[in-house]
């Protein structure tokens, strides 16, 4: 005779962060100086490729040697991402509370960062900017042609290996057109520029939605993402538990400061 019994309580399936997004394409640095939580600024080399001059024995007139005056300063804003829960669970331990909170953040922190970085007006450094982002074609070109335009722009700008950012759903199109390889845990183009398939909104530099059957790609210089360790608020069960209503409130948060060599910030619309 079958026995009806309650289900056994087990651990939830672990959360594995999505692969090949911004945090795969970027170089990651753990923030140890608390001042960096407020954002960072840095000097970059002047824009443009290196120049050349004729060999020394040239007898005719030659162009004067000229260089840019000063060094550009780039400023990047902090982005704090959080997630958590409120519940009335009975018998939840502090370790379980913190683990549930950490898992709530782990699965979505990268996507939240990518959505904001695409074009949020509050950021000093964003991918899509109506003034600072160079649009390489006013009309949509093929995916392969768009990648080519961005790769040439990256190379001509003298930043070395850059990053091409694309909405996540374009990963399948890149694969179909054989436009990506895998290198050291990252997706890269045929020429080695890194690819970030993120939860980007995909809007234009002015914030308009892409036309049907098209999408935007964005190229930047090399990306560095500084990030803090995960912080829990509150950080103890006693502080999280409200005895007046038997509720637990807990969130986990992490601050990111994404930045790149801003000699490259270019976009192109492509057909799908």
Mean pLDDT: 92
Q: Give me the count of strands.
A: 15
- Cα radius of gyration in angstroms: 24 Å
Q: N-to-C SSE series?
A: HEEEEHHEHEHEEEEEEHEEE
End-to-end Cα distance, whole Å, is 60 Å
Query: How much helix, percentage-wise, in residues?
Result: 10-25%
How would you sum up the major sheet?
7 strands, mixed
- The percentage of residues in β strands lies in 25-35%
* The number of domains: 1
Strand arrangement across the biggest beta sheet? 5-15-10-6-9-8-7
Poorly predicted runs are none
With helices defined by DSSP (H or I, 4 residues minimum), what is the helix count? Answer: 6
What coarse outline follows from CA principal-axis ratios? elongated
What structural category do the secondary elements indicate? alpha+beta
Provide tags for this entry:
about 270 residues, alpha+beta, 7-stranded mixed beta sheet, 6-stranded mixed beta sheet, 6 helices, 15 strands, about 30% strand
């Amino acid at each position: 005779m079958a026995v009806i019994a309650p289900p056994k309580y087990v651990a939830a399936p672990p959360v594995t962060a999505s692969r090949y997004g911004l945090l795969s394409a970027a170089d990651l640095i753990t923030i140890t100086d608390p001042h960096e939580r407020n954002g960072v600024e840095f000097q970059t080399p002047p824009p443009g490729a290196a120049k050349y001059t004729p060999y020394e024995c040239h007898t005719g007139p030659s162009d004067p040697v000229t260089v840019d005056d000063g060094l550009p300063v780039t400023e990047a804003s902090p982005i704090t991402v959080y997630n958590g829960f409120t519940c009335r669970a009975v018998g939840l331990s502090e370790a379980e509370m913190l683990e549930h909170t950490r898992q709530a953040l782990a699965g979505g922190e990268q996507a939240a960062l990518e959505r904001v970085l695409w074009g949020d007006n509050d950021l000093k450094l964003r991918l899509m900017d109506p003034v600072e982002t160079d649009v390489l074609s006013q009309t949509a070109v093929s995916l392969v042609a768009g990648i080519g335009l961005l790769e040439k722009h990256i190379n001509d700008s003298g930043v070395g290996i850059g990053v091409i950012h694309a909405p996540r759903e374009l990963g399948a199109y890149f694969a179909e057109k054989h436009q990506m390889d895998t290198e050291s845990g990252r997706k890269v183009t045929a020429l080695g520029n890194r690819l970030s398939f993120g939860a980007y909104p995909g809007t234009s530099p002015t914030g308009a939605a892409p036309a049907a059957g098209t999408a935007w790609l964005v190229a930047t210089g090399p990306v560095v993402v500084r990030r803090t360790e995960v912080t829990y608020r509150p950080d103890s069960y006693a502080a999280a538990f409200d005895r007046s209503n038997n509720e637990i409130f807990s969130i986990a948060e992490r601050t990111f400061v994404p930045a790149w060599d801003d000699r490259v910030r270019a976009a192109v619309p492509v057909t799908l």
